[in-house]
Amino acid sequence: MTQVDNENLLETDQSLQNQRKIVEANGIIFMACSSFAYSINSLFVKLGSKYFSSFFIVLGRSVFQLGFGIAVSLYLGIPVFGPRHLRKWLWLRGTLGCLGLALYYYSITVLPLADATTLFFTGPMFTSVAASVLLGEPFEKLDFIGLSLCLVGVTLLSKPTWLVGVDNSLHLTAEEAYKRTIGVSAAILGEIMASLAYLTVRKLGTKVHFLNHVTYLGICSSIFSFIMSVKLDQLVPLGFTKSTFILLTIGITACTGQCLLNSGLQIAPMGPGSLMRNLDVVFAFIFGITIFHEIPDFYSIAGALLIVGCAVSIGLRKILRSKA
């Protein structure tokens, strides 16, 4: 091989490395933009709670998402309802996802935005526990320590009355304290449902297109939220109003976040990509302070740091395991 050939090979390798770096950088940008889209979604859910119930907000998002999933699937020639032999798993994924979504949106309406978002980020801990029980994945001593610290963070964010100084800092009535307890419980239970839904996504893997997940979540959420809205007499007529714009924005940002997240997961390096997801919490604190004037106290900040720290550590440990 001549010197010219060697130089050409080196240039080709360098070009491929540069292209890979560009692709990975785009993946990280997609993940960051996904976090921003989801945080905008949560922001408008909070704004929309002045006009609609949480079930009606879920209904508005779900109808938009269902239409989006079906339309794009037909355009791309993807089977709308996925492979026949996997549909029971898709129905399960949609059911778990819709329960998680309804509970999370309810928590946003009754809790400070930052608290609800941070509590929802307990997901990696619940997912690792569920994966250990259901999929036989390893759960080691460090995972147990992380789970314990995460639970401490949840306790701080929950602000139970037996914590020193909570009564003095919150000034809550009995009814407000009860609503906060229900909101915290809804956020945690919602994340457990979302974690189980994520496990079904992992089980299905690449056997189904991600748009099938979008469609089934839209179907299940539309049915569930419509039934609940009718039963609780929470259906609201829509017109060309500010509230309708808020509802439309919730649907658009949800679909945008899902598309960016799935695209980013495919091309972003695991480490930086997983860290970008934690930007949701940062944006939630910013929006909570600047728009809703929800100033976080010591308990919220300490709890958020513990929960996000545990989520990051779990992501890093998974990366190290995959490289071992």
From TrEMBL:
Keyword annotations: Membrane, Transmembrane, Transmembrane helix
Protein name (Swiss-Prot/TrEMBL): EamA domain-containing protein
GO cellular component: membrane
Domain of life: Eukaryota
Subcellular location(s) of the protein: Membrane
Topology with respect to the bilayer: Multi-pass membrane protein
Transmembrane portions of the chain: 25-45, 51-78, 90-107, 113-135, 142-162, 182-201, 213-232, 244-263, 275-292, 298-316
InterPro entries: EamA_dom, EmrE-like
Any matching Pfam family: EamA
Major location (coarse): membrane
Organism: Conidiobolus coronatus (strain ATCC 28846 / CBS 209.66 / NRRL 28638)
Domain (EamA) ranges: 27-158, 182-311
